[in-house]
């Protein structure tokens, strides 16, 4: 390398000292970010949060590497100005600042904070060196110049800021989902209790009024009260957990519970629908019988023996309790067909 003047070396040192000051402020700003502090103060970190912390460790490592190089170059420069100084020391200083004088360690470490901003990162976190080595860019050269490392630092610093912003947005989304889950759990529990009471009432009415296929009260069965109680109690416990500021947001557990609650609601709705359909059919058959009798009366066929017997039999079944719907429907259809046949020329 050609020998350069002391003023050139001094300018480089001044430039790098200014850069070091800028990086120091950037790292201090990072540590003071509310989002970064929120992650650092958590007692448990998911994989995303671990990656964010490990990325910050790598930035601190790169910063320390640059600081060491600049300090070594500064020391060589001072020695070159002394009584026994020589150009070789100045040249060595320039080599440090311009050559591939930095080799990133494959093992990360937990650096201290920049300035007096509080407890060190090393005291706050336990760094997984395995995950950090995976985080390092495998394509990056083992050795690089300070300029190259500075470029890498700037890129990774901005990337970390972006990832922290994304994490913050995700937390906002999770908080919104958490609030929604809390409200929906309460709503589901209220619906379950209301629908269960309604289904219980209509099934009792159905069993008293309908005897279909010879089996009294046939159709879907009402879920047990024990099943209802288990789901509502589990929902209330989950709601209390989500209300607690110290609990983790277990939205996956809520989704599982929600699916079970919806399944029970669908079961109750199916029971209500079945019972209501059968009770409505009973009313419909009574209406058809009355309409057919009125038609027979208008046509002067009401007292025809066959029609009269069919009408009486159908009426006796339809107005009995419990009503055998299948048999009643068959008699009514026979009554309607007989009347139609009598009216044919």
Q: What percent of residues are in strands? A: under 5%
The residue-averaged pLDDT reads: 83
Number of domains: 2
Uncertain parts: 107-137
Helical segment count: 11
**Cα-to-Cα separation, first versus last residue:** 124 Å
**What multimeric state do the chains show?**
single chain
Structural class by secondary-structure content? mainly alpha
| Biggest β-sheet strands, sense, barrel | 2 strands, antiparallel
Strand tally: 4
Q: Estimate the global geometry from the Cα principal axes.
A: rod-shaped
Helix residue percentage: over 70%
Main-sheet strand order equals 1-2
Order of helices and strands: HHHHEHHEHEEHHHH
Radius of gyration: 42 Å
Describe the structure.
With 345 residues, this protein is mainly alpha-helical. It has 2 domains: 6-144; 177-343, no CATH class. It is 74% helix and 2% strand. The protein is built from 11 helices and 4 strands; from the N terminus they run H-H-H-H-E-H-H-E-H-E-E-H-H-H-H. Strands 1-2 form a two-stranded antiparallel ribbon. A two-stranded antiparallel sheet has the order 3-4. A hairpin with a 2-residue loop joins strand 3 (211-212) and strand 4. The longest helix is centred in the middle third of the chain and has 64 residues, at 146-209. The N and C termini lie far apart (124 Å). 24% of the residues are buried. The model is unreliable at 107-137 (pLDDT under 50).
């Amino acid at each position: 390398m050609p020998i350069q003047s002391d003023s050139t070396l001094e300018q480089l040192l001044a430039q790098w000292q200014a850069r070091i000051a800028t990086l120091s402020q950037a790292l201090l700003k990072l540590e003071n970010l509310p989002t970064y502090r929120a992650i650092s103060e958590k007692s448990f970190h998911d994989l995303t949060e671990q990656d964010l912390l490990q990325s910050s460790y790598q930035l601190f490592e790169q910063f320390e590497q640059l600081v060491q190089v600049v300090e070594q170059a500064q020391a060589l420069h001072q020695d070159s100005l002394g009584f026994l100084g020589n150009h070789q020391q100045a040249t060595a200083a320039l080599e440090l600042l311009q050559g591939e004088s930095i080799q990133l360690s494959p093992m990360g470490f937990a650096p201290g904070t920049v300035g007096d901003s509080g407890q060190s990162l090393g005291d706050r976190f336990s760094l997984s060196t395995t995950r950090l080595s995976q985080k390092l860019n495998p394509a990056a050269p083992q050795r690089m110049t300070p300029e190259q490392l500075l470029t890498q630092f700037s890129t990774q610093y901005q990337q970390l800021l972006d990832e922290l912003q994304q994490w913050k947005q995700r937390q906002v989304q999770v908080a919104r989902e958490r609030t929604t889950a809390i409200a929906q759990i309460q709503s589901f529990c209220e619906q379950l209790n209301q629908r269960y009471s309604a289904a219980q009432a209509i099934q009792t009415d159905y069993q008293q009024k309908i005897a279909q296929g010879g089996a009294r009260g046939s159709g879907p069965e009402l879920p047990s009260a024990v099943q209802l109680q288990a789901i509502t109690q589990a929902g209330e416990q989950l709601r209390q957990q989500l209300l607690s500021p110290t609990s983790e947001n277990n939205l996956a557990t809520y989704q599982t519970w929600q699916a079970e609650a919806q399944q029970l609601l669908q079961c109750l709705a199916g029971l209500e629908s079945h019972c209501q359909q059968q009770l409505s059919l009973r009313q419909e058959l009574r209406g058809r019988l009355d309409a057919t009798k009125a038609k027979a009366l208008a046509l002067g066929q009401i007292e025809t023996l066959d029609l009269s017997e069919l009408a009486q039999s159908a009426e006796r079944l339809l107005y009995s309790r419990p009503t055998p719907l299948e048999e009643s429907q068959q008699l009514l259809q026979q009554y309607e067909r007989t009347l139609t046949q009598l009216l044919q020329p």
